[in-house]
Design a protein that fits this description.
The chain is built from 19 helices and no strands. It is an all-alpha fold. Helix 7 packs antiparallel against helix 13. The N terminus and C terminus are likely disordered.
């Protein structure tokens, strides 16, 4: 469907609002942990599932969500996903115990998996090739800001205690936002599909989703349960199951069927390198944010609002820098990713050195400088982060590609939190205090710094791959590689 430019740009904030809500709900629960413990008596395992269960069902359902959009229409799936997300949010707010909250949070993640892939798919299907970099830049910025705002706005919501709802307000606030988004979406979204004949690869759904479940369950629950034998068995089993699923997908494609995954996407070095960069960034960002949140609230005893305000410079400067970052990308190409990665590395280095020198007495000035630089670095990274792997994707592949990208991001997030969290808690030990929290956060910062440096190296690979492709992708979008 052909849209005039004004209608496209009116549509963009509507669909990005849905992406923001997903990211916000994924992060805001971090500031409610003390409230959930006090009100629902939630134990450590339940708290882990409230956070990790959402990510788990979201990641497990993403590829299927993208596929359903390709088959039945991005508009239809977006509206269905948004409506379901609203219902799941209300159920979370009404939960009477930790078990109910865990179940409803997992449902909320599953509904988000139906909604979010359609955002990227609609961008790829409705914007002209020369307009996509700008639209994708806003997509990346929205994703980064949603995580930070989950900390900042979550703290404000808890501090205000609207209508005496306590922690429940973070879920009920979704209702009016969803109603507004649905009203505009029903008017502005085009009835766009990939043009493929509807069909569903049932074995592929079970194989891909099952292999992800086998990997994500131990990653989410392994640390809390002391990494028992079953966790390792499931983790190891995920490899042959995924291998078998991929072989099946290749067979389906070779015989003219419609596989759940489009393995042809992996023939593009640009897509592969961009996917790896996204994985590295999400592994660093979510895990580092998780550890910093624990340091501020549990270690330094900051209130939810106080801890959230420490992250305020990240949100503000990420937005400001990303606005100029788009023009820098147009002028200097993907090298802006390298600059952003190095600035981010400096931000983490400052925190690590501050914790090493000052320990539990680390000054707020050091924390604010670090989070400010993190915002600048993220603002330079985000405009290109999503566009890098999606640059060479054909519109007909948009739903599957966005599902694969988002699945990679979420798997990297869960893996990052599991690994860095395990390192953090191992260093914390059995007698936590300000000094031990600072020591654990310092170690986490050094590990995060290593991940960022790996990402910087991957950007070099991406630039080389884009250059080898002579800057022209099948979709017609020119990958900018230099000034």
């Amino acid at each position: 469907m052909s849209l005039v430019n004004d209608r496209r740009w009116l549509m963009l904030p509507v669909i990005l609002a849905a992406f923001f809500m997903y990211g916000f709900d994924g992060n805001v629960v971090n500031v409610t942990i003390p409230s959930l413990q006090a009100d629902l008596g939630a134990g450590e395992a339940a708290l882990e599932l409230v956070v990790g269960g959402y990510v788990f069902t979201y990641a497990a359902g993403l590829v299927l969500g993208g596929r359903m959009g390709d088959l039945f229409g991005y508009r239809r799936m977006f509206l269905l996903g948004m409506t379901s997300f609203t219902v799941a949010s209300v159920l979370c707010g009404l939960a009477q115990n930790s078990t109910e909250l865990v179940i409803f949070r997992m449902l909320q993640g599953l509904t988000a998996a139906a909604m979010v892939p359609q955002v990227l798919a609609l961008i790829m299907a409705t914007f002209a090739p020369e307009q996509r970099p700008r639209a994708l830049a806003w997509f990346g910025v929205t994703g980064g800001l949603s995580g930070i705002c989950g900390q900042v706005l979550g703290g404000l919501l808890l501090e205000s205690n609207l209508f005496g709802l306590g922690w429940r307000v973070i879920f009920f606030v979704n209702v009016p936002v969803c109603v507004v988004v649905l009203a505009f979406a029903s008017r502005l979204l085009p009835s766009t599909t990939s043009g493929r004949r509807p069909g569903l690869d049932g074995i592929g759904v079970l194989g891909i989703s099952g292999s992800l479940a086998l990997a994500l369950v131990p990653l989410v629950l392994g640390r809390q349960t002391g990494w028992p034998a079953w966790a390792w068995v499931l983790l190891v089993a995920s490899v042959p199951v995924m291998t078998a699923a991929l072989l099946w997908e290749r067979r389906v494609a070779r015989t003219g069927g419609q596989p759940l995954l489009d393995l042809a996407l992996f023939r593009s070095k640009v897509f592969n390198a961009g996917l790896a960069i996204n994985a590295a960034f999400m592994a660093y960002f979510t895990s580092y944010l998780f550890c910093l949140s624990l340091l501020l609230q549990s270690g330094l005893q900051f209130s939810a609002l106080h801890a959230g305000l420490i992250f305020a410079p990240t949100a503000v400067l990420a937005m400001v820098t990303s606005l100029s970052g788009k023009s820098l990308v147009a002028k200097h190409g993907l090298r802006v990713l390298t600059i952003g990665s190095l600035v981010t590395a400096v931000s983490v280095l400052i925190a690590a050195l501050g914790l090493q020198a000052q320990g539990g007495g680390i000054s707020q000035a050091v924390l604010l400088v670090s989070t400010a630089l993190m915002g600048i670095g993220n603002g330079l990274i985000l405009p290109s982060l999503i566009g890098a792997p999606m640059a060479g994707v054909k519109p007909a592949q948009a739903g599957i590609a966005s599902g694969m990208l988002s699945t990679t991001q979420q798997f990297a997030s869960v893996t990052g939190v599991a690994v860095l969290g395990a390192i953090f808690f191992a260093k914390l030990g059995d007698h936590p205090g300000r000094a031990t929290y600072a020591s654990a956060a310092e170690l986490a910062a050094w590990v995060a710094l290593g991940i960022i440096l790996v990402m910087t190296a991957l950007v070099t690979v991406l630039i080389r791959a884009a250059s080898e492709a002579k800057r022209e992708t099948p979709s017609g979008y020119v990958v900018p590689t230099k000034a």
